[in-house]
């Protein structure tokens, strides 16, 4: 039996301390810990890595603290368009949905599509119809809307009118998870509302296999957060896996090379969680903070938003 391990993120950003109340920071850490518990309980019971990453992401999609599912960002028309994907490193099977306007847990639809196997990627109303046909929970747009995102959209529109830059906080966020199971299999899952004021129909990296999500047994699993256009251009998840597989880089060097060197010239927010075949976990980011958490192969669990790391009980 290999050692099990899990890592999650809830998005990166500038995240000034005063952008949320102490209760909100605490609430976000609480929900990160809940996501870790959901995923780790499955891993410990011998479930597959792909089950663990789905379960962890579902908790964060249901949380109001993160930009995915309930609490997702709004596009330029004030609508939620949700993207998600999941990949099983054991088989390289994957499922992805984009621009969903109704699926309560987009990651469940991505998983259902992966299991269904007739397509890897469904978008828009077809993704919503697929989810409904599979018996997944669909909700009105109002379910996804939090006042925080309404205010952030208004701020982004004001910035656009004034020709100024919005804060990373107003812009984006995402949730994701990577895991190694007891049989040595890897998996990754990512879910997002994209960023506030995004163009209608814009699809980011999160549902793009190889960009925002990638998993391959014996190599690594990656889930990204940050300006998706650059994650697509650099095919970040697959790029990291390639460095590990072909250049024989360790995970820390491979991820650091992409996040802190390749993407540096663009001055974009970027972060990710990744795990290798031995259960080594990394969570690099180039912003002031990233919501994140991980369980070590020794079974110790940690959550963090900025530099300070909090140990939590499983
Ligand atoms: N990567 C996401 C996207 O571009 C947003 C984020 O993670 O901040 O849709």
Can you give keywords for this protein?
314 residues; alpha+beta; Glutamine Phosphoribosylpyrophosphate, subunit 1, domain 1; 9-stranded mixed β-sheet; 4-stranded antiparallel β-sheet; 13 strands; globular; binds aspartic acid
Brief characterization of the structure:
By secondary structure, the chain is of the alpha+beta class.
Please provide a written account of the structure.
The protein has a single domain (5-308), classed as Glutamine Phosphoribosylpyrophosphate, subunit 1, domain 1, CATH 3.60.20.30. The strands form two sheets. Strands 4-3-2-6-5-1-11-12-13 form a nine-stranded mixed beta sheet. The model has no long low-confidence stretch (mean pLDDT 95). The chain is built from ten helices and 13 strands. The protein is 35% helix and 24% strand. The chain is globular and about 50 Å long. The chain has helices at residues 22-44, 49-62, 106-116, 124-133, 141-144, 147-162, 168-171, 228-233, 236-246, 251-262, and strands at 5-13, 82-88, 93-100, 121-123, 175-180, 186-192, 213-216, 220-226, 270-276, 281-282, 289-295, 301-304, 309-312. By secondary structure, it is α+β, with helices and mostly antiparallel strands. A hairpin with a 4-residue loop joins strand 9 and strand 10 (281-282). Helix 1 (22-44) packs antiparallel against helix 2 (49-62). The structure holds aspartic acid. Aspartic acid binds next to strand 8.
Query: Given the structure, what is the number of helices?
Result: 10
Which ligands are bound?
A: aspartic acid
The CATH superfamily appears as (Glycosyl)asparaginase
Integer average pLDDT? 95
Q: Might you state the CATH topology name?
A: Glutamine Phosphoribosylpyrophosphate, subunit 1, domain 1
Q: How many domains?
A: 1
Query: Regions with pLDDT < 50 over 5+ consecutive residues?
Result: none
Lateral arrangement of strands in the main beta sheet: 4-3-2-6-5-1-11-12-13
Which structural class fits the helix and strand makeup?
alpha+beta
Distance between the termini: 21 Å
Helix coverage percent: 25-40%
């Amino acid at each position: 039996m290999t050692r099990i391990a899990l890592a999650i993120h809830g998005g990166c950003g500038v995240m000034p301390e005063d952008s949320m109340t102490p209760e909100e920071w605490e609430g976000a850490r609480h929900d990160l810990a809940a996501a870790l518990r959901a995923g780790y309980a499955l891993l410990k019971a011998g479930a597959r890595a792909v089950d663990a990453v789905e379960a962890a992401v579902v908790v964060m999609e249901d949380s109001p603290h993160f930009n995915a599912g309930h609490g997702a960002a709004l596009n330029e028309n004030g609508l939620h368009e949700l993207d998600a994907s999941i990949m099983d490193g054991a088989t390289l099977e994957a499922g992805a949905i984009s621009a969903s306007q109704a699926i309560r847990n987009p990651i469940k639809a991505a998983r259902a599509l992966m299991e269904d196997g007739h397509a890897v990627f469904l978008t828009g109303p077809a993704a919503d119809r697929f989810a409904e046909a599979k018996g997944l929970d669909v909700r009105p747009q109002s379910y996804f809307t939090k006042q925080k995102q309404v205010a952030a959209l208004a701020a982004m529109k004001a910035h656009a009118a004034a020709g100024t830059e919005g804060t990373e906080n107003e812009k984006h966020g995402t949730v994701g998870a990577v895991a190694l199971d007891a049989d040595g299999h890897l998996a990754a899952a990512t879910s997002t509302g994209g960023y506030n004021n995004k163009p209608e129909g814009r699809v980011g990296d999160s549902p793009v296999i190889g960009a925002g999500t990638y998993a391959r047994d014996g190599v690594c699993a990656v889930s990204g957060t940050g300006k998706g256009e650059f994650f697509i251009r650099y095919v970040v998840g697959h790029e990291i896996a390639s460095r590990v597989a072909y250049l024989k880089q360790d995970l820390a060097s491979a991820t650091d090379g992409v996040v802190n060197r390749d993407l540096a010239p663009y001055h974009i927010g970027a972060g990710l969680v990744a795990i290798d075949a031995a259960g080594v976990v990394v969570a690099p980011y180039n912003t002031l903070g990233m919501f994140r958490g991980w369980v070590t192969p020794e079974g110790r669990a940690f959550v963090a938003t900025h530099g300070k790391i909090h140990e939590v009980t499983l």
